[in-house]
Amino acid sequence: MAKQLPKVPVVIVGMGWTGGIIAAELTKAGVKVVGLERGKGRTTEDYFMGHDELRYVQRHEMMTDLSKETVTFRNNEKMRALPMRAHGSFVMGDGVGGSGAHWNGQNYRFLPYDFEIRSNTVERYGEKKIPEGMAIQDWGITYDELEPYYDKYEKMAGISGDAEPNPMVGKRSNPFPTPAMKKTPSIKLFEEAAKSLGYHPYSIPSGNLSEQYKNPDGIERAACQYCAYCERFGCEYGSKADPVVTVLPVAQRTGNLELRTHSNVVKLLNDGKKATGVVYVNTLTGEEFEQPADIVILASYVFSNVRLLLTSKLGKPYDAAAGTGVVGRNYAYQVQSARATGFYDDKQFNLYMGAGALGSIFDDFNGDNFDHSNLNFLHGGGIRLTQTGLRPIASNSVPKGTPSWGKEFKQKSIKYANSTLVVSTQGANLSWKHHYLDLDPTYKDAYGVPLIRLTFDFEDQDRELAKFLGEKAGEVMKAMKPTTMEISNTVKSYDIVPYQSTHNTGGAVMGADPSTSAVNTYSQMWDAENVFVVGASSFPHNSGYNPTGTIGALAYRAAEGILKYMQHGGSLV
């Protein structure tokens, strides 16, 4: 039987970016907060001398233990879903900081088009441009309304970027708080080629600091060392924006945050209209606790947020056949298969140095920045070259036709180790009525809770988008004048392997209509006013960018909404 604990004003489930930001904002306002994190605690010292590719990349040190909790997957309802037994298509973080501890630092704002995607598409092209079954919808909030929260997040994180604004993205109220990162020879080569074709490249906005920085909360961090150990690693210098070195220290020094690690929430207590608390299990002892609270905030990863709502019977589950319900709808992923690879016989680059967000991108073919009238897809993607830093185990680029082992393989591996550049793309993934999350009827986790089931496949929309972006990437690579080059621009059926992107979104989406959204624009549940579901689970579709910046902005808006709710109660919109 669960041990009942004293009631608290606020309990937060998950202590990554969203949980950390909300904890900092509430505790600064004097609110007592309990933060529950299923994994272990972390400090910067944990990462000292941690440049171990085998440990962190191949063996997934910072990721979820899939023997205890995983997801099941199928392409469609005719298939039986099976569990993901090893980290493949995406990796799910574990421990304080969550995905914010092991992300690479690439930090974008979504385009104004994204937030009003259906309205803007219909206005420009007509209703018939949207394919049957596509479930794109407006977010209920505009870019201009969200911009102040983007600004606040970027100042907290010290995001580095170009001084001159880029014409292809939304307007900014303030410049980036720190200058752009360095431009390496490979980045300069990419930018020169892109500009020669009439495109508008700019430095990737970076959560890896370009210089020492002190944020508005008084948190001071050192500049990036370009060591190349960002994605899937914690930053030993504290240079990468991470909840552990930014917002969590602010919350902890107020004395108003009680952070409980190894605390896995398995249920939201509720009466169908309001939550009364949560039940969690101590993962070390197996003890079960009931934590009553006035307000419950779900701030964990996409799959965990949705699974807790479904297992707790809070909100109406999505029914794909009927098209009704809201919890589980509009799952989306990302399209990252299109790229152009160039091999140079006459150039070498120092590719083993770098940073997770070191690079350049252009958005001429992102969102609706170009005419889609004669194209068989909507939206688009960014085209970029990054120098994140190669690592010896995973990096082994050789031209097609090279044997996969033996003398020639070894020779060409060495020859092209620092002579291979990639122009990559990241395409949007739009929502469809038959892509969704629900509870698996067969498989359960180590605590007896049903696993989340993912029903998803790539569509013709994704294939057409990848083909288009791949061709554009090839044009840029050709202008970079490699000795030989290869283009990849085909999309097959989605599979849970190999790794593609950890940018999963949707399942508890926001909007202005309770019949098609689970939360309002403050991330407050329509069906339970004292529950806030925050994070990428609220995205109605996925853009052509990494999601972290938008997650951060929505977290600041949610924190503002929670404080308003504590004063007045009721729905915030």
UniProtKB/TrEMBL annotation:
Keywords from the named record: FAD, Flavoprotein, Oxidoreductase
Lineage of producing organism: Bacteria, Bacillati, Bacillota, Bacilli, Bacillales
Keyword Flavoprotein found: yes
A single MF term (Gene Ontology): oxidoreductase activity, acting on CH-OH group of donors
One Pfam family it belongs to: GMC_oxred_C
Entry keyword Flavoprotein: yes
Superkingdom, natural source: Bacteria
PANTHER family: LONG-CHAIN-ALCOHOL OXIDASE
Domain Glucose-methanol-choline oxidoreductase C-terminal: start-end pairs: 440-555
Annotated family: Belongs to the GMC oxidoreductase family.
Protein name: GMC family oxidoreductase
Transmembrane segments: none
Organism: Paenibacillus xerothermodurans
InterPro entries, A to Z: FAD/NAD-bd_sf, GMC_OxRtase_C
SUPFAM superfamilies xrefs: FAD-linked reductases, C-terminal domain, FAD/NAD(P)-binding domain
